[in-house]
Give the backbone structure.
Amino acid sequence: MYKRIKNLDIGQISRSGQCFRLNPAGGGEGGEASAGEYRLLAADRALYLRQNGEEIWFSCEEEEWESYWRAYFDWDTDYGAFQAAVDPEDAYMTAACRAGSGIRILRQPLWETIVSFIISQQNNIPRIKGCIEAVCGRFGEEKTDCRGQAYRTFPNAHRLAALSLEDLAPCRLGYRARYILSTARMAAEGEIDLDAVSRLSYGEAKAELMRLTGVGNKVADCICLFALHHIEAFPVDTHIAAMLREHYPQGFPFARYEGFAGVLQQYGFYYESVVL
């Protein structure tokens, strides 16, 4: 299935630090995958993607596209409008938007995003990906994609809640293992209702998420931005802190970008961590 769109670049999104299971594809049916092809795993689903300019090929059928992936890629939002709203006198953000113009804020599964960003603490992207794949490889359900290639689903809260620290030790999560087990048990036992969190405002959702073990201010903002699509959330990690010190010593202009500062945060993160 082919679709055309502006301001979406699969490679940029895969390197943007918001999604850890979108990677260049391995072997496909009958041989190696096409150059430039990616495979995306999200919750219990698998999708192949290939891009040529504004045309993108997706391996799913129209029904699955409409019911799941269209929203996942935030397909109906005009990201060109966000870029056009940047102050033309802001040379830094203008350059960041230009460099990362294909980045969109994905609407990722909430539970997967919670665990992924707990793992992300004090971690680099290759190691985060390795830890997540280790967790999925050991505790996810095995499935096959449309090419007959095996993959593992992301284990749900009940599956992780039943584990021990010894079970998780081979995943090399370090201190994060305790956070994940405690958080999984809170979700599995109903101490926090993730379906209800999905319906809350940004401020309410962030406060509720920060009740979870190992979820502080930055991780809560990442979850709000990358799963709940509160695009006003503005996570500050080391890259964004450096950006703010260097280019916005008087403070980021949140008033000008009210309601979508998180989109610009992603352009800034990509510019700082990948381009520069």
User: Anything to note?
Assistant: The longest strand covers residues 45-52. DSSP finds 14 helices and nine strands in the chain.
